[in-house]
Design goal:
By secondary structure, the chain is an alpha/beta fold. 50% of the residues lie in helices and 17% in strands. The chain binds cytidine-5'-diphosphate (CDP) (2 copies).
Length: 224
């Protein structure tokens, strides 16, 4: 089975690289962040305060987060409803990071992630893929970039969607989420010992992709 783990902080370019790599390999790409986002969204829809961990845990048994693959790539479903288009707001980003500190939430979502990787060849991106979800993955990358560069990338994304954002506010949001993600006790954001570190601050998308492809060829041979 092919297992490729791509971790790193927000806006580093993980999903851009992971998605294109999966496309070229003709295998699935799993965006695990979307699952934490969908969980946060479902809880928020129910009016649950995510800071109240006991209340979150009480809901977990009745929230099913699933992913589906089709023409539009990965779609994420909360109790059968496709929520993919509603989970990119700043509120849901923060909610995802806050809900992701709760071990019971992680165990539930990681189970789905590991079961998927047992069935299909996969490129997975997130925060704990190389360290916790797929510790035996043969290709692991830790992709990062300065917070200023990552904020700039997010700013340009919003701008392309016709929305003007304050770049300093975006950088603050990113720094705050990185802090929550790296400082949590259970499966924090961390580079795996056997992961290749890629600082993409001054790298274009194609350079990043080429670096990843080179490693995939080293490990798996002529698969793309
Ligand atoms: O998945 P992650 O949050 O790590 O980042 P992303 O969504 O893949 O990338 C954030 C934005 O940065 C996207 O709009 C990419 O097109 C852009 N990007 C870039 O400008 N240069 C790179 N080397 C990588 C991504
Ligand atoms: O796209 P971006 O990098 O901004 O975030 P994301 O990958 O969609 O992840 C949203 C949040 O989910 C992160 O800030 C983490 O708190 C959490 N997450 C996690 O804890 N573990 C993962 N494997 C993936 C995401």
């Amino acid at each position: 089975m092919i297992q490729i783990a791509i971790d790193g902080p927000a806006g580093a370019g993980k999903s851009t690289a992971a998605k294109e790599l999966a496309r070229r390999l003709h295998i699935n790409y799993m965006d695990t962040g979307a699952m934490y986002r969908a969980m946060a969204y479902a809880l928020m829809q129910r009016g649950i305060d995510i800071a109240d961990h006991a209340a979150v845990e009480k809901e977990l048994g009745s929230i099913d987060i699933a992913v589906q693959y089709g023409e539009q790539g990965q779609r994420v479903l909360a109790n059968g409803t496709d929520v993919t288009d509603f989970i990119r707001t700043p509120e849901v980003s923060k909610g995802a990071s806050d809900v992701a500190v709760i071990p019971a939430v992680r165990l539930k979502l990681v189970k789905t992630q590991q079961e998927t990787a047992e069935k299909y060849d996969i490129v997975m991106d997130g925060r704990d893929i190389g360290t916790y979800v797929l510790p035996d993955a043969k290709v692991k990358f830790f992709i990062t970039a300065s917070s200023a560069e990552r904020a700039k990338r997010r700013y340009l994304e919003w701008k392309a969607a016709g929305i003007q954002k304050d770049i300093r506010e975006l950088e603050q949001e990113i720094i705050s989420r990185d802090k929550t993600d790296s400082e949590r006790e259970f499966a924090p954001l961390r580079q795996a010992e056997d992961a290749i570190l890629l600082d993409t601050t001054d790298m274009g998308i194609e350079d990043v992709l080429q670096a990843v492809i080179r490693r995939v060829r080293e490990v798996y041979g002529d698969v793309l």
